[in-house]
Each structure stands twice: as C-alpha cells, then as structure tokens.
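ok so heres the complex, two chains, lmk if somethin looks off
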Amino acid sequence: MDRFRMIFQYFQSNSESVMNGICGLLALASVKMYTSFDFSCPCLPQYNMAYGLGIMFVPPIILFLCGLILNRQSLVMLEEWRRPPGHRKKDLAVIRYMCSSIMQRAMVAPVVWIIVTLLDGKCLICAFSGSMDPKKFVGMANVSTVQVQQLLAKVPCKDEELMGNNTSRKAVSRYLRCWSQALGWSILLILIIAAFLARWLRPCFNQATLLQARHWSNYIDIEQKIFEESCCEHSRLFAHECILHFFESMRQEIKLHSFSSPREGERAEGEEDLLRGITDQDQVNKLLKTWYYEKPPLDVSQAHQR
Amino acid sequence: MDKFRMIFQFFQSNQESFMNGICGIMALASTQMYSAFDFNCPCLPHYNLAYGLGILLVPPFILFLLGFVLNNNISMLAEEWRRPQGQRGKDPAVLRYMFCSMAQRALIAPVVWVSVTLLDGKCITCAFCTSVPVESLGNASYPRLSQGEIQRVLARIPCRDIYNGQQLIANEVAVRYLRCISQALGWCFVLLMTILAFLVRSLRPCFSQAAFLKSRYWSHYIDIERKLFDETCAEHARSFAKVCIQQFFEGMSTDLAAARFHLPRKVPADAGEAAEKLLGITDEGTMNMALKSWHRCKPPLHLHPPALPTRNGWAGEGQPPPHPCAPRRETAAYYSWV
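and the predicted structre for the whole thing:
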C-alpha cells in the first residue's frame, strides 16, 4: 500500500523526468523513422529540389508538433495562460518559463532529424545535384545545357543506365555529401556550444527569478494532478453513496408493497448487510429494471442528513 | 483489500494512460499488419486502381470500427444515450465528450495505416501507374500504339518481371516518379493530421475549459458508477447464493429427520465447527439424496428468514414431488416443531 503510494508520488513530483523521457523517446523514434524510411529521389529536374528539401523540413515540423502534443505541461501552460484571474494573480514569468521549457524539449526531435539527414547526405545530394556547376566536373563540361540538367538530376540514382558508374556522377555525389556532412557537424557543434553556454551562464542572470518561476510552474503542475485525483476520489465516493442510497430506497419500497410482516431473522450480520433486504428473484429483477429505467437522481444530500 | 482499492484508483485516475496504451498497441499492430501483408498488384488496366485504392482505404475503415469495438466505453455510451430519463437528467455535452474521446482514439490506427501505406508507395504505384505522363517522362516518339495497348503496358509497371515497355518509358523512372508523389502525399497527410490534433488539443483550454472539466467529471462518474454497481450486484449475488444454498441444506436435513421420524440427533456439545458444517448430512445415502435433489429440483430464488424452516418439496425416496421444478411464489408451508 505504502509502496504504491510512494511510486505514485514519485511520478507525480517528477513530471520533469517523465517529460525528459518522452523527449528522448521521440528523438529515438525520429532516428528509427529516418532509417526505416525508404528515401527515393525522383531524379527529375523539377522534382528533386522539392523532394529533397521536403524530406528535410516537413518531418521536423511534424515531430515538433508531436513534441508539443505529447507534453502534458503544454496543456497546463495554456490553461494557466487563458484562465480568468479570479482570486489568483497570473505571473507571466512562470508562463514564460513553462513555455521555454516546453519549446526546448519539443525542439530536440526535429533537430535530431535534421542532423541525421545532413550527416547521411542523401537529401542534400537529391536537392542540390541539379544546381551544380557542370564546369567543375570532368565529363560534363562539353554537354549541352538541357542535357546537363538531365544528367545532373540523375546523379542521386545509382541504378540509372545513363549514369551508372560514371566517374563524374561519383564526383558530384562525393562533393555534395562532403558539404552535407560538414553542415551537419557544424550545426551540431553550434547547438552544443549554445546549450553549454546557456546552462553555464544561466546562474549569472536572474537566478532568484528563475528559482521562483521553476517552483511555481512545478506547483501549478502538481496542483492540477492532485485536483484530478481528488475529483476521481470524489466521484468514486459519490457513486458509492448513490448506489447505497438506491438499494436502501428499493428496500423501503419493497417493505411498503409486500404484505407479509417483516420477520427478524438471525442471519449473520455480514450477510444481512450485503443482501440489503433484497431476497427474491422478483425483487432483484425489479431492482435491475429500475436501475435502467429510472436511474436515481445525482443527489445524496438526504443520505447525509439522516 | 486496501491494496486492490489503491490499484483500482491508480488505473482509474490513469484510465487515460490505459486507453492511450491500447491506442499505441493498435497503431503498432497496424504497422505490423501492413508489413506482414503480401501486397500483390494485379498489373491489369482496370483492376490496378480498384486494388490499390482498396488496400489504401478498406483496412483503415476496419481498424476504425475495431477501435470502437475494443473500447469498453462504447457500451457505456450507448447505455447512457438510450436510457429513459427517469429521475436523472441527461446531459448531451457529456455524451459528446465521451463520443469524441472514443473517436479520437479509434482514429489513430487508421491514420497510421494510411500514412505507412502512402510512405511505402506500393499502393499508389499500383493504383496510378496507368496515369504516368509518358510525354514528359518517356519516349513519346515510340511507334504509335493504341490507347488500350499503352494502358496495358503501363499497367505492368509495378510488376518488373513482366514489364515489356522499357522503350516506352523506363520502369525505374516511372516507379521513382510515382513513389515520389506517394511519399509527398504521405508526408502532407501526416502533417495535416498532426496540425489538426495540435489545434484540437490547444484550442480547447482557450475556449471551453469549464464545460470540458464538467463533461470529463461526469463521464468519469458514469463509468465509476457502473463499475461500482456491477461490483455491488456481484457481492449481492454471492450472498444470495450462499444463503440460498445454506437454506437448501438446512431444509434437506429437516426433511430427512421428518421423513424418518427420528428425533434430531443430539450433536455432542464439543463437536465444534465440523459438525455444524455437516448440516445434519452424515452418511452416503443422505448425501446422494441431497445431490440428486439439487439436480432434480433446485430451490426457488426466494430466501426466507432463518428461524422458520420450510419444506423443500422432497418427502422421501418413494414419493416424487408433484411439481419438481416449479418455482413457488407464495411463502412455503411451515413445519413447526412446536
């Protein structure tokens, strides 16, 4: 009993670790999605750029939105932002803190996708092979403009009969992959430096405000959870009372309508309680029918006034 | 008992996470189903479209219905919708909330199927291979074939081993083109669904939070009330059965004593619990009679107060009871010891 309560409490107070866990899972999911996705460049002049850049940028948007949807805190933040002030003032610093922490977590999976895409290189090769300068590559210098566009567009496709093992195809491919990987590593380096600086320099600025904002955002989160829990507990007790009240009223109705005088039996206390005066097939059927046709009103105040 | 209550409470308050878990499992099941399914394009002009679009659209419909069937709350929703008003008003907002939350969860597996199908590309390639623009992608100057012939050749694009139109349009070019379009459609579809889900989730706190809290509480209440009622009825049924059977055995031992004109055996004072549990049935013949009577003539579903024993309708071996299994409505005749 105590152990369950402890586990429950642990999860409640560590919603941050739950959020971090979800963030990590989404990042892993994005890598898995990329590896299982069958990238297939169309190798046609007008379509390459759209396809390549589309694959590079549309899934990150999807992953970002997923990161926002799956994060429970985003709902809490929106509620806090839109609620009427009532008796409790709204602190914009808390809302800003929550917003920034949600955004940071939601950005992880898209960034992972973009970096994996760049380090792999296929997207950039597909998107920019048509924009290469043919003069840089041997074998393409003396081909007509229209044809060179066609040839360059077919570079990403290895099984193309026209290009096949052509050395200039490999040269273009290597060149673009080199650029793509350089871009990928640079972005990764910049992001890590930015994260490092942000974490190190944060205590130098507004530490007190930060502590306050973090405390109150945590508080709002826990308060929401405990409210939901209390509502659950309350509805359970309410239902319990309502049903007991219903059985009681059934018992009284039966007493009123039956003509035999009540006989006091010496049944065991436990059995009497559980039977609640319903001791007949007809009575049980009547009870079940009444439960369906006439549910009792949602009002247990009489039970409490007795 | 307390521990079970705690677990019950945990799952109830985390009912959402339980239902989300089922959603996730169905989504995984749908991807698994797709990869296990052996897609087999017919490669014939009119059949391709029907097959491709059928595989794209029919399984999601099945998965959607399955999502409703597997959801326990569907019967709760139906019950709440159809019950007579009685003393308790009906709130349409609660019904709408219940339906919406069930529909949202049921939509996940179909959306996953459609996305996986589009991103894979086989369905669209099969369905639309006859609509490939041959003029721009292929060899328009190929010796003129009739429209029907061209359609037949193009229809074989998904089946590489029987494709004979390499001069008309290269197989790889056509497949790449169709797959590119299919994947673009797939990503757009996923983006659209994600944006919709995001809007639905984020606009709700901005507009109708109070109404939402109310609907959620009462839908949860209806669920708990139903479960507790079932639990109470089960408890009641258990007690009913226990008392009924106890009275059957008591009646049996009374009848037995009466039929043999024996005085009730005096149970030794220090016999204890075991003698009590035997309920006066202490030999093989009697037990066999009891079992036969239980089968031939079950007692009526009517419990009576314990102080006044009643006949069971069994008057001894030689006399079969007049109405072996008619349930008696009126109170039984009493056999007084006085």
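quick notes: Chain A touches chain B through 72 residues (CB under 8 Å). thats all i got rn
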